[in-house]
Specification:
The chain has a two-stranded antiparallel ribbon. The chain is mostly helical. The N and C termini lie far apart (about 85 Å). The chain has a domain of about 80 residues. It is elongated.
């Protein structure tokens, strides 16, 4: 029987099993017999559910909001109201950036019960940048006041 070399320099003497194993995707028996699995790798997994084995029941739903102190609850409500009001404003780059930051702020408060000082400072600047569109909205004033109270001024 003749042996052929593959482009990567490995020989094909092992037949189908060797060829499948050389690529990293071949099947190798699990310890103790049973099913065969290939190389499986997971990168960073966040906000997902993974089950292994037979007869799994996985539920991956929205988690309950993290409890937060009244100041962050007030901010959360103001952020939600401003985000809703911004949907009715003529879109522009400043309004779009503020809307995106409000979405991230809402998500952070829901997950952790608070928003970081850096995020609050960004909102303050974005409110100023979008003041032509946001200045007439009571919800914009409410977010500005809530952010000011949390940042101390």
């Amino acid at each position: 029987m003749a042996m052929a070399d593959t482009e990567d320099g490995s020989d094909m003497a092992g037949g189908a099993d060797h060829a499948a194993g050389a690529g990293g995707g071949g099947a190798t028996p699990a310890a103790g017999g049973g099913s065969k699995f290939g190389n499986i790798r997971f990168g960073k997994v966040q906000g997902s559910a993974i089950g292994f084995g037979d007869h799994n029941h996985i539920v991956n739903g929205r988690q309950a909001e993290a409890p937060c102190d009244p100041a962050y609850q007030e901010l959360l409500e103001a952020v939600r109201q401003l985000a809703e009001d911004l949907r009715r404003v003529v879109p522009g780059p400043e309004v779009g950036a503020l809307s995106d930051e409000l979405d991230r702020t809402e998500d952070e408060i829901q997950r952790t019960g608070r928003a970081g000082a850096g995020r609050l400072a960004r909102i303050r600047v974005m409110l100023q940048d979008a003041s032509a569109s946001v200045g007439m909205l009571a919800s914009g004033v409410a977010v500005g006041q809530a952010v000011g109270a949390l940042l101390g001024g």
